[in-house]
Amino acid sequence: MTGRTWMALGLGVALLTGAAARAETERPATAAERFEKMTPEQKQALRGKLREFKSLPKDEQTRIRGNLERWRKLPPEERERLRANQRELRKLNVAERQALREQARELRKMDPERRAAMRQRMKAYLRENPERREQLMENMRRWRQMTPEQRQEMRERVRERRRR
Q: The whole model's pTM is what?
C-alpha cells in the first residue's frame, strides 16, 4: 500500500470538515459569534451547506457528525498533518484523486485487524529500508507524469501479476 493510500484515508476526515477545521484555530466562543464574523457570501454558502446537509439521509448525517466529532478530538499536530495531506491531495489531478478514493474504499472494506497489520508492516518496511522509500517516492513521481491510459495499462499489468 502506498503512502498516498494512507494519505487518502487521513484526508477523509479533513475533506468532510475543512471549514470547521480552519475555524478551529481562531474559534470565537459561540457559533453565533462565528456566524456574525462571516462575510455575507460566507453566510450564504454556510446556509447552502446546511440545506445540503439536511437533505442527506439520516445515516449519512450521523456519519458526518461522527467524523466532525473525531476531528475535534484530534490533537492540534494531527489536525495540521491532515491539513497538509489535504493540501497535497488538492495538487493531484482528478484521475489521481479518483484512484486514491477507490483505494480508500477498498481499504475500508478490509477487516480492521488486517488493515492495521498491513499499515504496521508498511511502516516497519519503510523505516528499515530508506532506499526503498526513496524508490517509492520516485515511482510516485513517475506515476504523476503518466497519462491516464498509461496508468490504466500499469494497473492491468499489476493485476495480471497478482493472478499468477
A: 0.46
